[in-house]
Amino acid sequence: MLTRPTPWRTADTAYQAHHGACPQCRAAGLNPGGPSRCAVGAGLWADYQAAGTPPHFLWLQHKQEATA
Ligand SMILES: [Zn+2]
């Protein structure tokens, strides 16, 4: 079976659900370079980052296609 990145929507939903309930991850999100996300949040954030461009960011996809 091929390993593929988590679909963006799934990664977003999972991270947002955790983020909403985790003060440590909210603090990390508000202060880049400040406090670190908790272990669970860091994993979810890595999945989110790996999931790529949000599918509704059409302007960014067009820009990326133009420079590819
Ligand atoms: Zn967290």
Give the quaternary arrangement of the chains.
Answer: single chain
Bound molecules: zinc ion
Topology, number of strands: 0
- Compute the average pLDDT: 88
- Helix fraction, binned, reads 55-70%
Number of domain units: 1
User: How much β-strand is present in the residues?
Assistant: under 5%
| Rg from alpha-carbon coordinates | 14 Å
User: Main β-sheet: number of strands, strand sense, barrel status?
Assistant: none
Helices, by number, come to 4
pLDDT < 50 stretches: none
Judging from the principal axes of the Cα atoms, what is the shape? globular
Structural class: mainly alpha
Q: Topology as H/E string?
A: HHHH
Spatial gap, N to C terminus: 28 Å
Q: How would you describe this structure to a colleague?
A:
The protein is mostly helical and 68 residues long. It has one domain. Helix content is 65%, strand content 0%. It is globular and about 40 Å long. The protein starts with 7 loop residues before the first helix and ends with a helix. The model has no long low-confidence stretch (mean pLDDT 88). The structure holds zinc ion. Zinc ion binds next to α2 and α3.
What brief labels describe this structure?
68 residues; mainly alpha; globular
Blueprint of the fold:
Layout: H1 8-21, H2 23-30, H3 39-50, H4 58-67
Helix pairs in contact: 1-2, 1-3
Bound molecules: zinc ion.
Zinc ion (ZN) binds next to helix 2 and helix 3.
Give a short synopsis of this structure:
With about 70 residues, the protein is mainly α.
